[in-house]
Amino acid sequence: MNIYRKIDRNKVQFDFLVTDYGCENYYDEITRLGGNVYFLPCEKLSLKEIKKTFFKVLNLRKYDYVHYHALSKWGECISYAKRLNINVIVHSHATKMSDTFIKSIRNRLFSLNTLSCADKRVAVSPEAGRELFLWEKFTYIPNMIDYDKFKYSNITRNKIREKYNFSNDDKVIGIVGRISKQKNQKFALAVLRQLIKENKNYKLLVIGEYDDKGKKYFQMLKSLIRKYGLERNVIFTGMVLNVWEYYSSLDLLWIPSLYEGMPTVAIEAEANGVPIILSSQITKSLKINGNVSYLKVNNCSLGSWVSLSKRQINSREFNSISNVKETIFNSKRVLTQWMRLYGL
Questions:
Q1: Which residues, including other chains, have CB under 8 Å from residue 111's CB and lie 6 or more apart?
Q2: Whether the Cβ atoms of residue 108 and residue 97 lie closer than 8 Å to each other
Q3: How far is the C-alpha of 170 from the C-alpha of 158, rounded, in Å?
Q4: Which of 111, 121, 129, 167 is the most exposed place for a label (fewest CB within 10 A)?
């Protein structure tokens, strides 16, 4: 969506074929920008239904490219694009095929078809490219943000903190993204539990929603919160459409993901200047500011997360926008790379 909002839509237009999990899907915005959105309900995700829907959509109009961004059985359909003489771009977003061994094998098998059909290979980080494409060549195009929107604001900081009744003494830590095993909110709760043993003013703002696949995980998190006695320290915001304002309200951001390709959240937060602690599984190529640190994510590293959080929590970078503009994440540079993908 960050690309779609900025790309020259007089020269290139996107349609979207997606699974409908019932959460934010940008439908209204996409149609307003001239695109179409085609949904396949999550209860109809049989391979037969996927193939049927994919083939139907490809025949609706003359497409020049299929730009594939997933690791799933949807990949079994990509050969249909080749039969219709449509160019295929395969885009890697993750540094692991899945969070379980069995699913990793399954997704590797699904990816074989996509790789054999790929005319162009793209990755959001060098690590994500090597994971999916192995020895094949690929183009590294980092994720892009509208970084000026994420500039720190004391006004929005106060607005969001007042909304959730945070006091001036509260130390607010954020974790942004879909509530799921991959994003590892469970680990964040364990770190928070240790922090509040020393200071009750630590708060964790969990910004994001869960989909149908994440319901059990969310219920497990709620149970842990009750078990740890964190009811007054953890706030679930649900889906928010003004996430850029939330970064200003934070004193620290955690990204303890089990795996990521190139988390856009991290770049957004760096543009805002909020200090970040990330899982060591995440690419190091996104480090822009001096207040960004990496730690392992396991039970043995809990103490390191606690001690580093206490040191990092008041180290906001106030020159961060200038830093981002001088890097590979510069939006004009990234947009140029995307246009080249489509031969423009």
A1: 71, 75, 97, 132
A2: yes
A3: 12
A4: 167
Write down the residue that tokens 């903190």 correspond to: 161
For residue 139, give the nearest of 177, 90, 210 by alpha carbon: 90
Q: Is 295 left (phi over 0), alpha (psi -120 to 50) or beta?
A: beta
Residue 280 near residue 301, CB atoms below 8 Å: no
Residues 297, 160 share a domain? yes
| Same domain membership, residue 17 and residue 111 | yes
Least trusted range by pLDDT, from 180-189, 269-278, 286-295: 286-295
**216 and 286 part of one domain:** yes
Q: Are residues 104 and 83 both part of a single domain?
A: yes
Amino acid (one-letter) located at 135: W
Structural domain of 136: 2-144+329-341
Distance, in Å, from the CA atom of 163 to the CA atom of 172, rounded to the nearest integer, reads 13
Task: Tell me if 63 sits within 8 A of 17, measured CB to CB.
Answer: no
Q: How many domains does the chain have?
A: 2
96 and 201 together in one domain: no
Structural contact between residues 268 and 252, judged by C-beta atoms closer than 8 angstroms: no
- Count CB-CB contacts under 10 A for residue 47: 12
Closest by CA to 213, choosing from 72, 37, 83, is 72
Measure the CA–CA gap between 161 and 248, rounded to whole angstroms. 9
Model pLDDT for residues 222-254, shown as the tens digit of each residue: 999 999 999 999 999 998 888 999 999 999 999
Q: How confident is the model at residue 23 (pLDDT cuts 50, 70, 90)?
A: low
Distance CA 107, CA 119 (A): 20
Residue 223 and residue 126 share a domain: no
Same-domain status, 119 and 165: no
Handedness of CA 69, 73, 75, 77 (dihedral sign): negative
Asked if residues 208 and 257 have their Cβ atoms less than 8 Å apart, the reply is no
